[in-house]
Amino acid sequence: MNDFIKEIEQAEDIVILGHTRPDGDCVGSCLGVYNYILDNYPEKQVDIYLDSFKREFMFLRGADTILHEKIEKTYALCISLDSGDLERHGEFEVYFHSAKRTLCVDHHISNAGFGDVCFLKTECSAAAEALFTLFEEDKIGTECAECLYLGIVHDTGVFKYSNTTRQTMEIAGKLIEKGARSSLVIDGTFYKKTFRQNKMLAKALDAAFLMLDGKVIISCLTKDVFEENGATNLDTDGVVDALRITDGVECALWMYEYPTEGIFKCSLRSNELVNVNLIAGAFGGGGHVRAAGCEIEGDKDAIILKITDMIREQLESE
Fold first, then answer.
1. Element (DSSP H or E) covering residue 118
2. Neighbours of 198 (CB within 10 A)
3. What is the b/e burial string over 171-194, where b = at least 16 CB atoms within 10 angstroms of the residue's CB?
4. How far, in Å, CA of 301 to CA of 95, rounded?
5. Burial label, 238 (beta-carbon count in 10 A; 0-12, 13-18, 19+)
6. Across 59-100, where does the E strand assignment appear?
7. Are 274 and 314 in contact (CB under 8 A)?
8. 252 with 243: CB under 8 angstroms?
9. CB neighbours of 79 closer than 8 A, spacing ≥ 6?
10. String of DSSP letters for 222-266
């Protein structure tokens, strides 16, 4: 029995936190832990706090119990998942500080380590994969397996990103054997798009342009575009990867403006040469070598020039 399981067994009540603007790995990991505890320690009380997420994830068991607003409560144990630093928990960070014990499970290389116990597994493709290595395999039920499988699918781009390893594929196979519905997860949550999502993808692609002799592709949508189309950031899932696979492109930069004017979310993806984690880290963000993100306040054109200059420096050093 490892320290992760011991901490769960010793805690009467547990709170699970993911990062702001939760993606598939974040939601899948949080619900993976929730279902693992529900199946093996039904006497324990477990709460999850997350921002709103894609409705396509609502079929996962426990998704409808996730809390989206703070309540006055303290917990014996707080588990931080898929978050490179505490600030990524947003307003729910307060639960981490008030808990008697704290755990961190993550796979981002930008994570410097935090919590009473930190399980930082940068060799894993996703937080969901890291969790599989911490759970007792024979105690992983079908619902837990499906959550973990969804997390891995989303953070590997359906097993096509460079973070996919032999271990990733072996674990995915084991999760399918435990009942994870592969076609439902992949088609239903990764490839299927709403009409609004397709519209926003079209607008992002229409706004795209090339720099650095076609090696960099950039697209940025301002908040007025979202307002005109009744859209949110949840309607732009997959845009950065659609940019990345453009022929001849090494690095993609996808930016969108928050409702707060002048603050932009920047997502970076690269194929072979650029370490985007270094670029995002320079602005207080982070992630992985080939996938990272950050938030930057300022003029969008100035931001684009700063980032492309950093990309240029890396390309010229190759």
1. strand 117-120
2. 11
3. bbebbeebebbeeebbeebbeeee
4. 38
5. middle
6. 77-81
7. yes
8. yes
9. 14, 15, 16, 17, 33, 102, 103, 104, 105
10. -HHHHHHHT--GGGGTTHHHHHHTSTT-SEEEEEEE-SSTTEEEE
Q: Tell me the CA end-to-end span of the chain in Å, nearest whole number.
A: 45
Structure tokens at 177: 């054997």
Q: What's the rounded Cα separation, in Å, for the pair 154 and 190?
A: 7
In whole angstroms, what is the distance from residue 146 CA to residue 201 CA? 28
Cβ atoms within 10 Å of 158's Cβ, excluding its own = 15
- 228-232-233-234 Cα dihedral, nearest 10 degrees: -130
Q: What is the dihedral of CA 30, 33, 34, 36, to 10 degrees?
A: 150
- Residues 160 and 238: their CA atoms lie apart, in Å, by 14
pTM score > 0.85 for this model? yes
Chain segment 141-197, per-residue pLDDT in tens: 999 999 999 999 999 999 999 899 999 999 999 999 999 999 999 999 999 999 999
Q: Please compute the mean of the pLDDT values over residues 222-235 and round it to a whole number.
A: 95
Residue that the structure tokens 């890291």 belong to: 130
Measured distance CA(96)–CA(118) in Å, rounded: 13
Residue 273 three-state SS: coil
Q: Strands 251-257 and 263-270: what pairing? A: antiparallel
- Characterize 2-19 residue by residue with b for buried, 16 or more Cβ atoms within 10 angstroms of its Cβ, and e for exposed: eebbebbeebeebbbbbb
Contact 49, 21 (CB under 8 A): no
Tell me how far apart the alpha carbons of residues 254 and 27 are, in angstroms, rounded to a whole number. Answer: 22
